[in-house]
Each structure stands twice: as C-alpha cells, then as structure tokens.
Amino acid sequence: MSVVQDQGTPPEAGPPARLLDLGLRVAGAVVVVVAGVLTGVLELLLATVRVGGQLIGVSVLLAVGANIVLSWFAHEAVGRRWAVALPAVPWFALMAVAAIRTSEGDLLLAGDNWVGLAMIVAGAMTFAVMGFRQILSPPPTLLG
Known about the structure:
Blueprint: H1 15-46, E1 50-51, E2 54-55, H2 58-78, H3 85-98, H4 114-136
Antiparallel strand pairs: 1-2
Helix pairs in contact: 1-2, 1-3, 2-3, 2-4, 3-4
C-alpha cells in the first residue's frame, strides 16, 4: 500500500469555488472592456497633441503599449484565448465612430492627421498579433 496520493488529478472544486472563479472572470472581463474604451478615448485625445506646431506620435505608442497590456490582461483575467476580443471590439468601435463625420461637421480623426491613421493601424495590428499569438500558443499543462 502506497502512502503517496495520486498527484495526477487535482481535486474538484466545489460550487462556492466555481462561483467565485466565475465571478472573478466576469469582473475581469468588465474591467477589460471598460479599459478598452478608456484607452481608446485617451488615444483619440492625444492624437492631436502638438509640440512646436508639429504633431507627435504619442498616441501611436500608447495604442501599441496599452493594447499589448489589455490583451495580456484579458487572457489572464478571463482565462480564454478569445478574451483578446473583449478590449478589441470596443476599441475598434470607438475608432470607427471617431472617423465618421457628425451632422454638425465634427470629426475626431481627420484623414490628414497622420498620427490618427498610424494609431488605428498600429492598434489594430497589435490586437491582431496578440490574438494570433494566443491562438497559436500551446494549451496549458497541469504540472503534477
């Protein structure tokens, strides 16, 4: 008779532990969606920043850095590979709305603003690369 227990299978979590896990995942998803909207708004505000009369690309750098962090956090918080879509969808929607002229003639992202265009391309590519990396990553293994 062996004294060592079988370490290959983890013990099953009871209903309270599963509910807590689900609640934390949902809360993480909500945080990621809100953060996607907030970073998109901040990037739009910074797309017109000028120094000495010249546009600077601070919102492009922010878009790349924030989208990397949001994609990583979404995967860690939700625990699913598709979680990269949680910050990406509201970010894309916000950028699409910002590029449409209102009936009053207001436009957040003009076609002659190279920073705004670069921000959209860099942010979209960042989400695409992060999503691609998560899809291709091997499934996690349980170490026993």
